[in-house]
Amino acid sequence: MKGYTSKHIAHSILCVLICTTLVCGMTPHSAYAEESLEALENAAIEAGEHYAQAQQELDNLNQKIEDNQSKLKELEAQLPKVRQDTAEAIRLNYKLLQNQPNLIGLILSSRDFSDFLSTVSYINAINDSNYEKIQTLVQIESQLTQTRDALRSQQSTLASKTKEAATAQANAQAAIAVAKKRAMERAAEAKAKWEAEQAAAHATTTQSADANNSTPSNSSNTSSSSNTSNSGTTSNSGTSSNSNNSSSTSGGSWKSVGASVYGNDDGFMWGTTASGDTVTPTSMGVAMKRPMPLGTTIEISYNGRTVRAVVNDRGPFIAGREIDLQPAVANALGFDGVGIVSYRVV
Predict the structure, then answer these.
(1) Cα(first)–Cα(last) distance of the chain, in Å?
(2) Can you tell me whether residue 276 is helix, strand or coil?
(3) Cα dihedral sign for 74, 79, 85, 90?
(4) Which of 30, 41, 145, 180 is the most buried (most CB within 10 A)?
(5) pTM score, whole prediction
(6) Smallest Cα–Cα separation from 261: which of 325, 207, 341?
(7) 8 A C-beta contact, residue 154 and residue 68
(8) Stretch (H or E) spanning 155
(9) Is-contact 100 137, C-beta < 8 A?
(10) SS3 of 206, please?
């Protein structure tokens, strides 16, 4: 272990085991071939949480090993001095025993009872001091033995914990890869369909505007009717885009959770969600973990802004986060990257 800590060794083992598991010991596509997208995403979430737990146990074990290694060094540094003191105490104690007749004579020759007690107390103090030094050595050597045994046991456990963490991470990565592939299978078709719908909506709006401009009378009523028919268009998640920046006075209690964004430069844009929707630039959907039912409408608040969105996907895959925002939701909130948001069910 020269030049390396237990963390370095564990990290090296972890990397090797992950590569071995992914390359040699796992066929993720066949393992999850018959699973639904929601089941795949739930498997990825659970595997990620298992990995986070295994990694925490590994970190705790590494800390215990480091603590015991420090304790071992401290005890070993004390040992030479304690052994020297103990050897001196044993020699002195031996001399006292050898001179026992003289000591008895010294005690008996005391002039009075006070001298007698003083002499006896002095001899007992010497004996007690010698005994304490001997006991200190016994205790330190006992602690050394216990620490070495604990260290050996912890180092033995380290390999199995490292393997467990590696397997959990490999499972998480495999499940995420399969879920992403499944979600992206119709990406090109979904993108083309959305672009066609946007083009058609734009053409309809343009035609309506041209017709309104060419009609001299009742233009205001016609325009109002036309705008009404288009302004209520909903995203794939089923949530009206008019709900952005609106806050309801009813609903459940607010809860603050870790959040992130997906769908931007990660391959999930145009992918299918667990509920069958498509992630588009305008979809007001979010991913949440079980037991939050798919189709649940929630309000999300961040930095003074509030929007409504529909739970139509499962995620995030990273432990410690509870909600993954699709790009339109993140843009409406002014949320970028990773942070804390508040949400409630409405």
Answers:
(1) 57
(2) coil
(3) positive
(4) 41
(5) 0.61
(6) 325
(7) yes
(8) helix 113-184
(9) no
(10) helix
The torsion defined by the Cα of 269, 271, 276 and 279, in degrees rounded to 10, comes to 10
Of all residues in the chain, the percent with pLDDT exceeding 70 is: 68
CB 287 within 8 A of CB 262: yes
Find out whether 13 and 163 touch, Cβ atoms under 8 Å.
Answer: yes
User: What's the CA gap between 17 and 164, in Å, rounded?
Assistant: 9
Strand duo 339-345 + 297-302: pairing: antiparallel
DSSP readout, 1-67?
Answer: -TT--HHHHHHHHHHHHHHHHHHTS--HHHHTTT--HHHHHHHHHHHHHHHHHHHHHHHHHHHHHHH
Residue type, 6: S
Measuring CA to CA, which residue among 255, 253, 198, 235 is closest to residue 329?
Answer: 235
Angle of the 100-108 helix axis to the 37-98 helix axis, nearest 10: 70
DSSP state of 269: T
Instruction: Report d(CA 18, CA 15) in Å as an integer.
Output: 5
Task: Give the span between the Cα atoms of 159 and 164, in whole angstroms.
Answer: 9
Asked if 172 contacts 51 with a C-beta cutoff of 8 angstroms, the reply is yes
Q: Of how many residues is the chain composed?
A: 346
Please tell me the predicted confidence (pLDDT) of residue 294: 97
Q: What is the pLDDT of residue 16?
A: 41
What pLDDT was estimated at residue 135?
80
d(CA 302, CA 334): 8
Q: How far apart are CA 100 and CA 93, in angstroms?
A: 10
* DSSP reduced 3-state for 342: strand
Mean pLDDT per segment of 10 residues, for the chain of length 346 residues?
Answer: 42 44 45 74 88 86 87 85 79 63 55 55 64 79 86 84 85 87 87 92 83 58 36 39 44 93 92 94 96 96 97 93 97 96 97
Whole-number Å distance between alpha carbons of 27 and 176: 13
